[in-house]
Amino acid sequence: MALCLTAVCLLCSAILGVVYAVTFEPIKAAARANLEQSLSEVVPQGCTVNTDADSREMEGVEYQCYEAVDAEGNPCATAVSSTVNGFGGSLTVLVGVMRDGSVCATKVLSHSETPGLGAKCEDSSSAFVKQFEGFDPSVKKLSVRKDGGDVDAITASTITSRAYTLAIENAVKLMKKKEADDE
Predict the structure, then answer these.
(1) Phi, psi of 102 (to 5 degrees)
(2) What pLDDT, in 10s, does the model give residues 54-98?
(3) How far is CA 149 from CA 94, 123, 131, in A?
(4) For the residues of 125-164, what is the DSSP string, one character each?
């Protein structure tokens, strides 16, 4: 019985190993294509994004930044991958930050939020996500109304809304820090 169980385990392990080896590159390619599509959605139209990430650190947290340039090669925006804790776990938001510190657009890269509630943050056509397009933190307060800010939260998903807003705030702070460091 022990030999039979060992043989079955070895066979299953071999099958899993082969499946992993066969699917690794296609999964990696699909993830890369998804990232490239997302990057193009959070920077201004006409800008080209460098898909090689530049790691930056702020307050002990590592961020991935992708520089975008216009047709003349001048920097126009930076896409920042910002991860925070939401209601259901990690929430990773790609934030397009313009040179003036305003938000161009946002896109959820991954989340573990509750389907039908917090997961609404994933819908780029929702009023919640649309309100961040062109959001200028120097003019409006980047926090939910419940906390005295100017952001309308997702109904029944205040924790997710706070997390999403925090991810954007962190990206904007990172870019302000970078600008200050460059001067």
Answers:
(1) -80, 160
(2) 899 999 899 999 999 999 999 999 999 999 998 888 999 999 999
(3) 21, 22, 13
(4) TSHHHHTTTT--TTTS--SBGGGTSSBPPPTT-HHHHHHH
Longest dimension (CA), the chain: 72
Residue 44 CA to residue 58 CA, distance in Å, equals 25
Compute the chain's Rg from CA coordinates: 20
Q: Which residues contact 93 (CB under 8 A, 6 or more apart)?
A: 81, 82, 83, 84, 106, 107, 108, 109, 164, 167, 168, 171
Contacts of 134 (CB under 8 A, 6+ apart): 102, 103, 104
Q: Look at residue 120 and give its three-state secondary structure.
A: helix
Q: Two tokens at 112?
A: 């573990």
Residue 43 CB partners (closer than 8 Å, separation 6+): 49, 68, 76, 77, 79, 96, 104, 105
Q: What is the pLDDT of residues 110-124, one digit of tens each?
A: 888 888 777 778 888
Q: How confident is the model at residue 126 (pLDDT cuts 50, 70, 90)?
A: confident
CA 131 to chain centroid, in Å, comes to 17
Token duo for residue 44? 């201004």
Q: Which residues pair with 157 in a beta bridge?
A: none
